[in-house]
Amino acid sequence: MMNYFRPAIASIQGYIPGEQPKRGTPIIKLNTNENPYPPSPKAIEVLRTLDSEWLRRYPDPYSRDFCHAVSEALSVPKDWIIVTNGSDDLLNILIRACAEGKRKVVYPMPSYVFYRTLASMQAAQVVEVNYPQDYQLPIDELVAAGGAVTLIATPNSPSGHLVPLDDLRQLASRVLGILAIDEAYVDFADYCALSLVQEFDNVIILRTLSKGYSLAGLRLGFGIANPELLSGLFKVKDNYNVDAVAILVGAAAMKDQEYKNNCADKVKRSRGKLAIDLSKIGFQVRASQGNFLLVTPPGDRAAAIYQSLKEQNILVRYFNLPGLDNKLRITVGTDEQNQQLLQAINSTCNF
Ligand SMILES: *Cc1c(COP(=O)(O)O)cnc(C)c1O
Fold first, then answer.
1. Model pTM greater than 0.90?
2. Ligand 1 centre from 88 Cα, in Å?
3. Is-contact 71 214, C-beta < 8 A?
4. pLDDT, tens digit, for every residue of 187-213?
5. Atom of ligand 1 nearest to the CA of 185
6. Which residue has the higher pLDDT, 6 or 104?
7. What is the set of domains in the chain, with CATH numbers?
């Protein structure tokens, strides 16, 4: 067939998402870091009683009901918030607004694989700086790379480590472009970097309701930065990038911080237990501040274990990338799901 696409599109492979099984498949899904608990009952109630008038009309282009809820929950002014269709939408907006050709996109590796996809689509130069073995932030190399946008996920996926605030501070003060701090997993972590938006006018914090709030299917995320930085992003975003249902259901979920924190506490306790149980059967387990663990099975068996778990209807993530070739990323499930995972691993290998 004729090549109808821009060179940047024709040459990329496209993001390969984690498998999403059909509804009703009896599967334990520990591959894409969803929260194992349901969303807040208050959010579900809003969905159940939604007036169809909300569907007839266009949604509010500024998602103000949701902004209001974020403003209250996190004590940030409303005009410091941009609301997006998942944080993937915000990453897309950021990269489209800032990067092109020599205006580079820079991030450490390994990290969220989608950064590369977005940057390549934009036809922007990409600089990937490898994390050292101990996952210290390679600040000098990141600065030297000279990004128009530098992306740091913290807690990082798939490693699970949290980047120290002082490292982020140094990076923010030294990069010439925007520093985007992707806090998708912040709800499971010991601290956050939100205060940096007040210290640095080039910092934006990215958040999502997909992980901590159990709303991955709703598609809702947001960014926090000073209004001047946000004004450039508002020019790029689709007018109606967030639907009316997401605004209302998301606002109810955001208001119910107590429910979210309770679920996160349960996940953190299960994370600790699962880490211990996997260590006992010989896995190397990295300490994690996210709702997942990056583990190295004994022997060279990551691929085989991945495959065998899949045959037993348990999905985990196997990246098969440099540095991650004998590793699995396992989402922390409920204690019951984690037990089933351990049993399935035990039946696979005789440790
Ligand atoms: C899950 C994830 C996202 C995307 O979240 P959505 O809001 O569902 O688009 C962004 N960054 C990282 C690091 C993630 O793990």
1. yes
2. 6
3. no
4. 999 999 999 999 999 999 999 999 999
5. 15
6. 104
7. 17-38+258-349 (3.90.1150.10), 41-255 (3.40.640.10)
